[in-house]
Amino acid sequence: EADIYQTPRYLVIGTGKKITLECSQTMGHDKMYWYQQDPGMELHLIHYSYGVNSTEKGDLSSESTVSRIRTEHFPLTLESARPSHTSQYLCASGGIGGYTFGSGTRLTVV
Amino acid sequence: GENVEQHPSTLSVQEGDSAVIKCTYSDSASNYFPWYKQELGKRPQLIIDIRSNVGEKKDQRIAVTLNKTAKHFSLHITETQPEDSAVYFCAASNKRSNTGKLIFGQGTTLQVKP
Description:
Chain A is an all-beta fold. Chain A has strands spanning 4-7, 10-13, 19-25, 31-37, 44-51, 54-57, 65-66, 76-78, 87-95, 98-101, 105-109. Chain B is mainly β.
Protein backbone atom coordinates (compact mmCIF):
# COMPACT_ATOMS: atom_id res chain seq x y z
CA GLU A 1 0.00 0.00 0.00
CA ALA A 2 1.32 3.43 -0.93
CA ASP A 3 2.31 5.37 2.16
CA ILE A 4 4.96 7.57 3.76
CA TYR A 5 7.34 6.09 6.31
CA GLN A 6 9.45 7.73 8.99
CA THR A 7 12.17 6.20 11.11
CA PRO A 8 12.94 6.12 13.92
CA ARG A 9 9.60 6.56 15.65
CA TYR A 10 11.27 7.70 18.89
CA LEU A 11 14.83 8.91 19.45
CA VAL A 12 16.60 10.00 22.62
CA ILE A 13 20.05 11.37 21.98
CA GLY A 14 22.74 13.35 23.76
CA THR A 15 23.63 16.96 23.10
CA GLY A 16 26.14 17.47 20.29
CA LYS A 17 25.33 14.26 18.43
CA LYS A 18 24.64 14.21 14.69
CA ILE A 19 21.31 12.65 13.73
CA THR A 20 19.42 11.88 10.55
CA LEU A 21 15.68 11.41 10.49
CA GLU A 22 14.56 9.24 7.62
CA CYS A 23 11.50 9.80 5.44
CA SER A 24 10.48 7.69 2.46
CA GLN A 25 7.31 7.64 0.42
CA THR A 26 5.85 5.21 -2.07
CA MET A 27 3.13 7.65 -3.18
CA GLY A 28 5.02 8.77 -6.28
CA HIS A 29 4.80 12.40 -5.16
CA ASP A 30 7.26 15.03 -6.32
CA LYS A 31 6.56 17.40 -3.42
CA MET A 32 7.75 16.60 0.09
CA TYR A 33 7.77 18.59 3.34
CA TRP A 34 9.14 18.55 6.88
CA TYR A 35 7.15 20.01 9.77
CA GLN A 36 8.10 20.54 13.37
CA GLN A 37 5.29 20.15 15.90
CA ASP A 38 5.10 20.18 19.67
CA PRO A 39 2.33 17.75 20.76
CA GLY A 40 -1.08 19.02 19.71
CA MET A 41 0.31 22.37 18.70
CA GLU A 42 0.87 24.25 15.44
CA LEU A 43 2.55 22.65 12.44
CA HIS A 44 5.63 24.66 11.50
CA LEU A 45 7.08 24.13 8.01
CA ILE A 46 10.87 23.86 8.23
CA HIS A 47 11.86 22.46 4.80
CA TYR A 48 10.26 21.49 1.53
CA SER A 49 11.18 20.09 -1.83
CA TYR A 50 9.27 20.05 -5.10
CA GLY A 51 11.49 17.58 -6.84
CA VAL A 52 14.86 15.88 -7.01
CA ASN A 53 17.74 18.25 -6.22
CA SER A 54 15.37 21.01 -5.08
CA THR A 55 15.17 22.01 -1.41
CA GLU A 56 13.91 25.18 0.22
CA LYS A 57 13.74 26.48 3.76
CA GLY A 58 10.30 26.80 5.29
CA ASP A 59 8.66 29.47 7.37
CA LEU A 60 10.27 28.44 10.66
CA SER A 61 14.01 28.86 10.90
CA SER A 62 15.70 25.56 11.61
CA GLU A 63 19.29 24.46 12.11
CA SER A 64 18.54 21.24 10.30
CA THR A 65 19.37 20.48 6.66
CA VAL A 66 17.69 18.25 4.08
CA SER A 67 18.58 16.56 0.83
CA ARG A 68 16.55 15.17 -2.07
CA ILE A 69 18.67 12.89 -4.21
CA ARG A 70 15.85 10.46 -4.97
CA THR A 71 12.16 11.20 -5.45
CA GLU A 72 11.07 8.84 -2.71
CA HIS A 73 13.61 9.85 -0.06
CA PHE A 74 13.80 13.13 1.93
CA PRO A 75 16.05 12.81 5.00
CA LEU A 76 16.54 15.55 7.59
CA THR A 77 19.88 16.00 9.38
CA LEU A 78 20.87 17.81 12.54
CA GLU A 79 24.67 18.21 12.67
CA SER A 80 24.77 18.92 16.40
CA ALA A 81 21.64 18.20 18.42
CA ARG A 82 20.63 20.53 21.25
CA PRO A 83 17.86 20.34 23.88
CA SER A 84 16.01 23.10 21.97
CA HIS A 85 15.61 20.61 19.10
CA THR A 86 13.39 18.41 21.25
CA SER A 87 10.11 18.13 19.34
CA GLN A 88 8.14 15.96 16.95
CA TYR A 89 9.19 16.01 13.30
CA LEU A 90 6.56 15.14 10.71
CA CYS A 91 7.33 14.38 7.09
CA ALA A 92 4.64 14.76 4.42
CA SER A 93 4.30 14.30 0.70
CA GLY A 94 1.82 16.09 -1.52
CA GLY A 95 -0.27 15.18 -4.51
CA ILE A 96 -3.62 15.98 -6.09
CA GLY A 97 -5.44 14.58 -3.05
CA GLY A 98 -3.62 16.77 -0.55
CA TYR A 99 -0.86 15.86 1.85
CA THR A 100 -0.17 12.49 3.41
CA PHE A 101 1.77 12.66 6.67
CA GLY A 102 4.17 10.13 8.09
CA SER A 103 3.78 8.93 11.67
CA GLY A 104 6.51 11.29 12.86
CA THR A 105 9.74 11.05 14.82
CA ARG A 106 9.58 12.16 18.41
CA LEU A 107 13.04 13.52 19.20
CA THR A 108 14.35 14.15 22.70
CA VAL A 109 17.79 15.70 23.16
CA VAL A 110 19.21 15.34 26.64
CA GLY B 1 2.72 37.00 3.57
CA GLU B 2 0.39 34.04 3.43
CA ASN B 3 -1.50 33.44 6.63
CA VAL B 4 -4.34 31.26 7.91
CA GLU B 5 -6.10 32.16 11.15
CA GLN B 6 -8.14 29.48 12.94
CA HIS B 7 -10.70 29.85 15.74
CA PRO B 8 -11.43 28.80 18.36
CA SER B 9 -8.25 27.29 19.78
CA THR B 10 -10.27 24.98 22.04
CA LEU B 11 -13.85 23.79 21.77
CA SER B 12 -15.80 21.63 24.19
CA VAL B 13 -19.22 20.23 23.26
CA GLN B 14 -21.63 17.63 24.57
CA GLU B 15 -21.99 14.41 22.65
CA GLY B 16 -24.65 14.86 20.00
CA ASP B 17 -24.17 18.60 19.67
CA SER B 18 -22.67 20.30 16.62
CA ALA B 19 -19.18 21.79 16.42
CA VAL B 20 -18.02 24.57 14.11
CA ILE B 21 -14.43 25.61 13.47
CA LYS B 22 -13.66 28.70 11.40
CA CYS B 23 -10.64 29.77 9.35
CA THR B 24 -9.72 32.85 7.39
CA TYR B 25 -6.96 33.09 4.80
CA SER B 26 -5.01 36.01 3.42
CA ASP B 27 -3.85 34.89 -0.03
CA SER B 28 -6.61 35.52 -2.56
CA ALA B 29 -4.89 33.05 -4.95
CA SER B 30 -5.64 30.16 -2.57
CA ASN B 31 -7.86 27.60 -4.25
CA TYR B 32 -7.59 24.43 -2.16
CA PHE B 33 -8.74 24.09 1.46
CA PRO B 34 -8.22 20.79 3.29
CA TRP B 35 -9.03 19.89 6.87
CA TYR B 36 -6.91 17.50 8.92
CA LYS B 37 -7.73 15.60 12.10
CA GLN B 38 -4.94 14.63 14.47
CA GLU B 39 -5.76 12.22 17.26
CA LEU B 40 -3.51 12.06 20.30
CA GLY B 41 -0.13 10.57 19.39
CA LYS B 42 -1.08 10.03 15.75
CA ARG B 43 -0.35 11.68 12.43
CA PRO B 44 -2.65 14.33 10.93
CA GLN B 45 -5.10 12.76 8.50
CA LEU B 46 -7.10 14.42 5.76
CA ILE B 47 -10.82 14.27 6.55
CA ILE B 48 -12.34 16.56 3.94
CA ASP B 49 -11.26 19.18 1.44
CA ILE B 50 -12.87 21.77 -0.80
CA ARG B 51 -11.74 23.59 -3.90
CA SER B 52 -12.49 27.18 -4.76
CA ASN B 53 -15.04 26.35 -7.45
CA VAL B 54 -17.34 24.78 -4.83
CA GLY B 55 -19.21 26.50 -1.99
CA GLU B 56 -20.01 23.50 0.19
CA LYS B 57 -19.07 19.85 0.49
CA LYS B 58 -20.50 17.15 2.77
CA ASP B 59 -19.32 13.73 3.85
CA GLN B 60 -21.66 12.05 6.31
CA ARG B 61 -21.45 14.06 9.56
CA ILE B 62 -18.84 16.55 8.39
CA ALA B 63 -19.22 19.45 6.01
CA VAL B 64 -17.07 22.31 4.87
CA THR B 65 -18.27 25.67 3.56
CA LEU B 66 -16.24 28.24 1.65
CA ASN B 67 -16.85 31.96 1.21
CA LYS B 68 -14.31 33.18 -1.33
CA THR B 69 -15.42 36.81 -1.12
CA ALA B 70 -14.84 36.96 2.62
CA LYS B 71 -11.87 34.56 2.40
CA HIS B 72 -13.10 32.24 5.08
CA PHE B 73 -14.05 28.59 5.35
CA SER B 74 -15.54 26.49 8.10
CA LEU B 75 -15.74 22.89 9.26
CA HIS B 76 -19.06 21.66 10.62
CA ILE B 77 -19.39 18.42 12.55
CA THR B 78 -22.92 17.32 13.41
CA GLU B 79 -24.02 14.73 15.99
CA THR B 80 -20.58 14.76 17.59
CA GLN B 81 -19.25 11.57 19.15
CA PRO B 82 -16.41 11.04 21.67
CA GLU B 83 -14.21 9.68 18.85
CA ASP B 84 -14.41 13.10 17.19
CA SER B 85 -12.19 14.42 20.02
CA ALA B 86 -8.92 15.48 18.40
CA VAL B 87 -6.97 18.48 17.15
CA TYR B 88 -8.31 19.82 13.85
CA PHE B 89 -6.20 21.86 11.43
CA CYS B 90 -7.43 23.89 8.49
CA ALA B 91 -5.10 24.75 5.64
CA ALA B 92 -4.99 26.68 2.38
CA SER B 93 -2.86 26.47 -0.72
CA ASN B 94 -2.62 27.60 -4.30
CA LYS B 95 -2.70 24.36 -6.30
CA ARG B 96 -1.34 26.16 -9.35
CA SER B 97 1.78 27.07 -7.39
CA ASN B 98 4.99 25.17 -8.08
CA THR B 99 5.51 24.28 -4.43
CA GLY B 100 2.03 23.10 -3.44
CA LYS B 101 2.76 24.41 0.06
CA LEU B 102 -0.07 24.15 2.54
CA ILE B 103 -0.39 27.01 5.02
CA PHE B 104 -1.89 25.60 8.22
CA GLY B 105 -4.04 27.25 10.83
CA GLN B 106 -3.05 27.12 14.47
CA GLY B 107 -5.28 24.13 15.28
CA THR B 108 -8.44 23.61 17.32
CA THR B 109 -8.60 21.10 20.15
CA LEU B 110 -12.09 19.62 20.12
CA GLN B 111 -13.32 17.77 23.19
CA VAL B 112 -16.60 15.87 22.96
CA LYS B 113 -17.95 15.07 26.40
CA PRO B 114 -20.04 11.89 26.73
